[in-house]
């Protein structure tokens, strides 16, 4: 039985309980239906146990997606945007935005920002970037992580927030499509209630449709090396989308246009159900919990790569002790100040600041007096992008969504909890991959990523070593015979480029150029 429910974005904490108050839109159940099976990867996600859509996606050349029209049409995109409110002077890069209708009726309208490479767009690689959540806009990556703009980090004073250039933008080395996916994310919207609902597999199929239509209007990029990228929950989306593109290329009657797929890249990616077990390993390694508590957790909770057992009283007691040691830390980057994180904002904090638990404003304008916490800079995106003149400059369809939110609640079904099979299949097909981990992220710890990579059982061709930027060790890396490179970013958090922009840009540029890190 398939269960449907509303869910909040999980970019920062896949374990947070973010069920919304609206009723289920499919499956006939009531809100929070009893008897739902808890998703083993997240604390409060409900998924079926007897449904494996991966079988449909991994069958290779015979896979055909019924929702993909045989005839695809071009997308609507804006003219080049030369000026945007809040940025001084003309933009030093080429920006366009647009909508692409997907599914047969095109009732799903996917919105994107496209930034051309600032170096050599004719030949530089093209990246499709999807931010995690699910439900967090790709504008998060554009303005806080790896795009050409940053918000000036000053308190809101009643005027429009200011934007400045990011000297470490990844668009110096590649053109990037920042896609709002799934439907309901950012400016992507559904024309009907049914179209406004999505699943893991639907979202990925719609991303494939998006790409085919986008390339019809941008044929000059068909020969560019193409990669799919993302972070956090996009560890589910990215391998599936890459697999779907590969399947289309393998199909006997492949639908044009053909995409020049080369590989994919992922940061701190959600990958398999028992990832959270490695939070205890991480906590032990970082000195957050004692040797004795760690051994007791392993003994009483059955923590290993494949399973866990949290039903016993001894295990519950150990987890309580662990939470006592961990609760005062920021899970997205344990060295940063513990603040009211976007997924954990209390009601009193919401009343005080006008901000909800996702870092969105309930009031039109923010009232924060300063940025003592990194999280306090996120509402600048709401203040800026909800401005009428900004939306005109970005060619937003007025009335298509309500107030824009950086991270939105979605009507969504989680169908796939494990993407290791996709990584293995893509490796067999010879695609390149870069998997990187901010080494101070406690949500998807680097140990869990190392574990599933190790499970692929490929030989090592460049063993564990430091990688260096400007004479300094900035992380550690290892390369495998399946063309997979793993790298840690020293001091990086859950979204590593946000915390270590120069180091991550160096990593990206080297890998993209087939250079060793």
UniProtKB/TrEMBL annotation:
The keyword Aminoacyl-tRNA synthetase does not apply. Keywords: Carboxypeptidase, Glycoprotein, Hydrolase, Protease, Signal. One of its GO terms (molecular function) is serine-type carboxypeptidase activity. It comes from the Eukaryota. InterPro entries: AB_hydrolase_fold, Peptidase_S10. GO terms for biological process: proteolysis; secondary metabolic process. Belongs to the peptidase S10 family. This is Serine carboxypeptidase. The lineage of its organism: Eukaryota, Viridiplantae, Streptophyta, Embryophyta, Tracheophyta.
């Amino acid at each position: 039985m398939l269960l449907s429910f509303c869910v909040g974005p999980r970019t920062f904490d896949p374990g947070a309980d973010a069920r919304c108050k609206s009723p289920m839109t499919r499956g006939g159940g009531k809100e929070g239906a009893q008897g739902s099976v808890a998703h083993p990867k997240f604390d409060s996600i409900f998924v079926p146990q007897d449904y494996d859509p991966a079988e449909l996606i991994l069958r290779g050349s015979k896979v055909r997606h019924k929702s993909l029209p045989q005839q695809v049409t071009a997308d609507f995109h804006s003219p080049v945007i030369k000026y945007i409110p809040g940025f001084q002077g003309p933009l030093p890069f080429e920006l366009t935005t647009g909508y692409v209708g997907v599914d047969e009726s095109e009732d799903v309208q996917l919105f994107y920002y496209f930034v051309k490479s600032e170096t050599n767009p004719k030949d530089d690689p093209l990246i499709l970037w999807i931010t995690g959540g699910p439900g967090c806009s790709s504008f998060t990556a554009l303005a806080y992580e790896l795009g050409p703009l940053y918000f000036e980090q000053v308190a809101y004073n009643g005027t429009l927030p200011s934007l400045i250039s990011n000297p470490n933008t990844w668009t110096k080395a590649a053109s990037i499509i920042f896609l709002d996916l799934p439907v309901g994310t950012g400016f992507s919207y559904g024309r009907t209630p049914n179209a406004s609902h999505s699943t893991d597999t639907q979202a990925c199929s719609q991303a494939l449709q998006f790409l085919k239509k986008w390339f019809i209007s941008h044929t000059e990029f068909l020969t560019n090396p193409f990669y799919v990228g993302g972070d956090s929950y996009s560890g589910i989306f990215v391998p599936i989308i890459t697999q779907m593109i590969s399947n289309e290329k393998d199909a006997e009657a492949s639908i044009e246009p053909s995409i020049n797929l080369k590989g994919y890249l992922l940061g701190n990616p959600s990958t398999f159900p028992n990832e959270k077990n490695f939070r205890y390993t991480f906590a032990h390694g970082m000195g957050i919990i004692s040797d004795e508590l760690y051994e007791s957790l392993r003994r009483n909770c059955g923590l290993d790569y494949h399973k866990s057992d949290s039903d016993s009283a001894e295990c519950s007691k150990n987890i309580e002790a662990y939470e006592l040691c961990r609760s005062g830390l920021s899970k997205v980057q344990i060295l940063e100040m513990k603040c009211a994180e976007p997924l954990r904002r209390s009601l009193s904090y919401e009343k005080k600041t006008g901000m909800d638990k996702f870092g969105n404003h309930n009031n039109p304008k923010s009232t924060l007096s300063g940025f003592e916490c990194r999280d306090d800079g996120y509402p600048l995106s709401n203040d800026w992008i909800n401005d009428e003149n900004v939306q005109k400059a970005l060619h937003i369809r007025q009335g298509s969504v309500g107030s824009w939110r950086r991270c939105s609640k979605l009507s969504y079904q989680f169908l796939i909890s494990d993407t290791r099979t996709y990584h293995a299949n893509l490796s067999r097909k010879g695609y390149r991959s870069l998997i990187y981990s901010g080494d101070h992220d406690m949500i998807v710890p680097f140990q869990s990523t190392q574990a599933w990579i190790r499970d692929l059982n490929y030989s090592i061709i460049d063993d564990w070593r430091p990688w260096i930027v400007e004479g300094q060790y900035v992380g550690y890396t290892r390369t495998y015979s399946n063309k997979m490179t793993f790298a840690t970013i020293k001091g990086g958090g859950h979204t590593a480029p946000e915390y270590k922009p120069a180091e991550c840009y160096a990593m990206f540029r080297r890998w993209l150029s087939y250079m060793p890190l």
